[in-house]
Design brief:
CATH superfamily of the largest domain in chain A: MetI-like
Number of strands of chain A: 0
Largest sheet of chain A: none
Oligomer: heterodimer
Number of helices of chain A: 12
Structural class of chain B: mainly alpha
Order of helices and strands of chain A: HHHHHHHHHHHH
CATH topology of the largest domain in chain B: MetI-like fold
CATH class of the largest domain in chain A: Mainly Alpha
CATH architecture of the largest domain in chain B: Orthogonal Bundle
Shape of chain B: flat
CATH class of the largest domain in chain B: Mainly Alpha
Low-confidence stretches of chain B: 1-14
Mean pLDDT of chain B: 84
Number of helices of chain B: 13
Order of helices and strands of chain B: HHHHHHHHHHHHH
Radius of gyration of chain A: 24 Å
Amino acid sequence: MASTTTPRTGRGSGRRSGNSRHPGRPRWHTIALLLLPALVLYAVFVLYPIVQSMRYSLFDWNGFGPLDTFIGFDNFARALASGEFRAAVGHVTFLIVASLVVQLPFALGLALLLNSKIKGRALLRTVFFAPYVLSEVVTGVVWRQILRPDGLLDQSLQAVGGESLIQGWLSDPDVVLASLFFIISWKYFGLHMVLMLAGLQGIPKDLTEAASIDGASAWESFRYVTLPLLGPTIRVSAFLSVIGSLQTFDIVWVTTKGGPIGASSTMATFLYDQFRRSLFGYASAVSIIIFILCLVVALFYQRLVLRQDVEGVGAGA
Amino acid sequence: MPESSTTLDQPTTAEPDGWLTPARRRRLLKFLLYAVAIFVGLVIVVPLSFAILGGFRSNQQLVAAPVGLPDPWIVDNYLRLLQTSSFWQQVFNSTLIAVITTAVVLPLSSLAAFAIARFRFRGREPIYGLFTLGLLFPVAVAILPLFVVLRQVGLLSNPLGVALPQAAFGLPVAIIVMRPFFRAIPNELHDAAMIDGCGPWRFYFSVVLPLSRPVLSTIAILSIVGSWNAFLLPLLVLIEPSQHTLPIGVNNISTQFATDYATVLAYTTLSMLPALLFYAVAERQIISGLTSGAVKE
């Protein structure tokens, strides 16, 4: 794996290579040519839209016609004062907290399980990770079928005498968010599991062996040896999870469209609702708010956590 | 799991309290581990097989008895869908867009990552930072201005209107994963190549690319899977039904034929099979790609 072949030397890692003083150092236009295609594509489809969002967010604009009704930060004020948006923020907060408190420890537990001498590890890993490669649309549609009234879950509960447990899984405003969290976890815990598994496999066996020779119990050697060494991986996982939760859209849109009565809305589904109502300025303000929140999380992560962990951030969850 | 393992491996000092001797504890623990593993496995497998088997049922069967094997097996749902031209059109559209996306991401990201990884120049770190910024602004959030941009440049209702932005949004991850890989190529190789009079381009094509096949295929696979599964951007950009991709098709079918459960499940199954087959073939690359970079040392 690439990870094992990349010794990091901290923030000055570039300085160790002697390329700069090399006689064969390429001229600036070579570097420009190497970078330019990516930069152009990136500028047109990523950077320019970010800048445009910031601009639109200051106007009252329906997406057509001239951009001439400048209203300053009114769109932001409106979003922050909107009960619907606040509800969406609340739902996203729930998803973040639940992911950190339930999904990640669960993924860690399974990673530990797959790192033990259990039989069929390879098969289990394949199965556990499989939902990650499915599209969110497929995931949402399948789960909608399972959770519909009198669907697979309800009938299975009936069959084992658990009628009293039956809920309006996706139709009860009090339950729907928990159902969605389950579906999201179903799809994504495999990603966190393989991340942590890779982290576990990077911990030298002699360390835990030494701990157990010194008389540490399995729990102690997990708590005082494995867990600290796994810190960077857990932080990457947590970071991906928070960012992913902040941006949750497809799976919610396909499964519940944010309903019933907005009980499972996220910031991104709220944004899309405004977009469909042609409130482009307002929707842009919401997208900037999401972007700023992600940026804050990223800066916080980079500040608080040693910079060494940041190096790689696998495909967003 | 961790909690339940507190008692594992206790040296013989642990007094054997009743029937729960250390050996029995270990066996009990082992049993619990397998039980958990099998339970989680079932939670994954049951929904998938529910969808696959559901496609082989009639609607009456799905309402009356969604559990167990179909009785009788009904092949009609699948056959009917496989004979519709719109399904194959969507397979083609999804494939085309995935191929274009990947064909754009790979060369662009590898060239840029090569420059960032192997050469020192002013503005290198800011440029790298700029690329990582893209991780914080996913398509779902950027969709609105992106829509306006695509409308301006006339890429609405055009597969390129999906592929190019997807490629652009795929650059950050690709560059982040490739950079350490390219950096790990020994300097001695670089020096030797330079002494032999090999310029940066020759070095890129004759040394870097051949050595980086694993990371390149990883990025290719991630970008194919990502594109294959994409929903929101294609939904907004591809206005003509003839341009729809599979996820749009699944979503449409599931809302249009909301009560025709069997058809919905059959369609869903057909659209997820390629992804699952792909996963079966390329599991290693997918997982190592996702874990490289994110996990250090």
